[in-house]
TrEMBL record, chains A, B:
GO molecular-function term, one example from the UniProt record: DNA binding
Annotated Pfam families: MerR_1
Protein name: DNA-binding transcriptional MerR regulator
Record-annotated HTH merR-type domain positions: 1-70
Entry-linked InterPro entries: DNA-bd_dom_put_sf, MerR-type_HTH_dom, MerR_fam
PANTHER family according to UniProt: HTH-TYPE TRANSCRIPTIONAL REGULATOR ADHR, REDOX-CYCLING DRUG-SENSING TRANSCRIPTIONAL ACTIVATOR SOXR
Keywords noted in UniProt: DNA-binding
Superkingdom of source: Bacteria
Length: 210, 210
């Protein structure tokens, strides 16, 4: 299809498509004349991925370029490619260097992950992120106890295994795997959070016998 | 205690305390002379609540003033008082008036809540928020199916009943109930979200046999 059709089918305006071509986010089409090129399904898939990373993930063009590079490089294993997107979605957390409470929380997170037998890379930003929240709870005088964390972790892993993992397209095109991961992580994360707050209202009403 | 001690014990600077007094967030102390007043435990509790609403909840002073008014008015039932804080923590969601997809999603949320037998007020902003995420998933070509939602809801309610509700101080001072709700909703929400993303990494590694 021509660029005008690619635009109509994807809903992405032509100038935006041209911008993505210049930035290297979208591969060039096959030239059919000096001024025309032919685009295909792969371009539609890529535009869909870029849209998810931008609108759902809230990522910058620079962050998207890195993810696209991992998608395009077939020598990058699927798990590493997914990790690129996964880590890019994590909120930035400042690591307080000489904070005792934070150090203790980080050690606790590492212990928890070991105990659960979860496979997490040593430099995963999620470790720091969890430590940061735990240190904050302690500082507010409401520390999370180990039992709580284990129960939360077990429930979460059960849900992830029976639900979330079935939504990731591991076997299809590399773009589709990353796109499904972004949508699943961000939007199902929101579904979970809203349901949790709805459950709070209902449980509170029942506890107070309303 | 004097205002200087109140500051030292709470960690809130004296000028900030004076600002809260002027804005009506903190009740005045008992005057002991023309320029001095005596403060007590209730003031410490209130400062702790304000800190949680500001720093953890990220609320504005105007939003905090409304919550404080509900805390101070003993004729406001506990559930309503907690609801004031609970709803203030919900992210603002624009309601697209004439959007068919959104309307359908909202009807679906209402049906789900009915089916689950949850006690949620008809005007809870969480209904709109969930509908908005569901409409978004549909628009991205990844609609959530009913089975998924029911399973998520059941798991979440179980966790909330056995864990979250035990952390809310329903029987103590009204300030402490609201403060525990804010910390629990926001920070345990983050704990949940990070654990979910950690579980994704581990489950993905196992699925790909790494």
């Amino acid at each position: 299809m021509r660029i005008s059709e690619l635009s109509a089918t994807s809903g992405v305006p032509v100038p935006t498509i041209k911008y993505y071509l210049r930035e290297g986010l979208l591969p060039h089409g096959t030239p059919t004349s000096a001024t025309r090129a032919e685009y295909g399904e792969a371009h539609l898939r890529r535009l869909r991925l870029i849209r998810a990373l931008l609108e759902v993930g809230g990522l910058s063009v620079a962050a998207i370029a890195k993810i696209v590079a991992a998608v395009e490089d077939e020598t990058v294993p699927v798990h590493t490619m997914l990790g690129t997107a996964h880590y890019a979605l994590a909120p930035a957390v400042e690591t307080p260097a000489d904070d005792e409470e934070f150090g203790a929380a980080l050690a606790r997170v590492d212990d928890l992950i070991d105990e659960l037998g979860w496979q997490i890379t040593p430099d995963a930003p999620t470790r720091t992120e969890l430590a940061w929240v735990l240190a904050r709870l302690s500082r507010l005088g409401r520390p999370a106890d180990d039992e709580d964390l284990r129960r939360y972790a077990a429930t979460v892993m059960e849900l992830v295994t029976i639900h979330d993992m079935t939504k990731v397209s591991f076997d299809g095109p590399r773009e589709a795997a990353v796109e499904s991961l972004v949508v699943g992580t961000v939007l199902y994360g929101k579904v979970f959070d809203v349901l949790r707050r709805l459950a709070h209202e209902s449980a509170s009403a029942q506890l107070l016998n309303l």
